[in-house]
Amino acid sequence: MNLSFDLNDPHLIEDPYPIYSAFQQKRPVFFAQFGGERVLVVTKFDDVAVILNDRETRVNRPGTTVPEIFAGSASESLWENSISRMDPPVHTKVRRTAGNHFSQKNVSSFKVIVDEVTAEVFDEITTKKIEVVKSISNEIPMRVICRLLGIPIQDGRQLLNVTNSFLKIFLPINASRITAEEINAASRTFIDYFQKCVKSSSDRNRDDLISQLTFGPLQNGDISLAQLVGLLRGLFTAGYETTAAGISASFHAFASYQEQFQLLREDTSLIANAAEEILRWETPVQAILRYSAREVNLSDALVSPGQAVLLLTGASNRDPARYTNPQNIDIRREVGDHHAFGGGRHFCLGRSLAKLEMEAVFREMTERYSQFRQPSNLSRRQNLQFRSITYLPIELTGH
Fold this sequence. Notes:
This protein is an alpha+beta fold.
């Protein structure tokens, strides 16, 4: 029996958690129809972890490298050449190449830039009433990733204009032909821009990521130009999207749970754990599509080889079997291995950078303000997978 589960339902996008909870209680694993595809939907933490960590799990249907709806388009190129869309052995090679530039030593060196940008953005706030997304959430990760890549901030803002359209690529089971054309136009923008950046790189001594990757792995033949463009696109969108969503969620969380912010002000040693807790509570990527390459046992289902599986990470991170009172924020909670950054071989490459930025934001919040109030409702992107806040009014109270 199939359950109705509409990824485009505005009520689901506005607040999916009651529905997630109902699924977990009544049918934690179930089949749903998306277009012409019968998909197994998984909601429980342990079941999601099994699929994410299974070495035989694929991001593409076994025997394919790109969804049919993107065949022959710019989207096909970005799909095939993006780390998050690759399967082994190509994924193993490109991930290793990219990972060398996100070593602990390199990420530690990013902290200087992150702290500088974060303080700069907070210094620019001159009123008590702000719209957080525009003033803070978008600004910090945008400025940071542009500096790390070595591109002008105005170029980053132009790329941001097509990011909402591009993000729809990650659930091809929910894409129509019209949506595919929208995604393709965004893909073409990313390809044209980053090809131009790579081809115009002329100084091997620059320390930005585009120069390092161009005069290193590309010149050495470790990766192709198409793979480098796909990697740069991934660094830009992932470097921006997850962090921006997390920052917005933090302001919303601390306005809603003011006692938790007071606790954080009193004990700033909780900053790192508070970031993890908010990422669990409001997971930036709510759903991940995978394909099983073999038979896999879940708690309430047997996954067949080749089966499409939709992992509701937004649900798994609020699974009451894993977390006590998961709907609440507790910055002292032992969060453990939540699914905000995925898992397995596709565990988010930029996790450490995202955490650096959120922790820097929390330090500024606790040093500059004593309270936050949300005077009116927020708005969200109309995309269940990436349902980040797009409008968030906040009133600030200083020390």
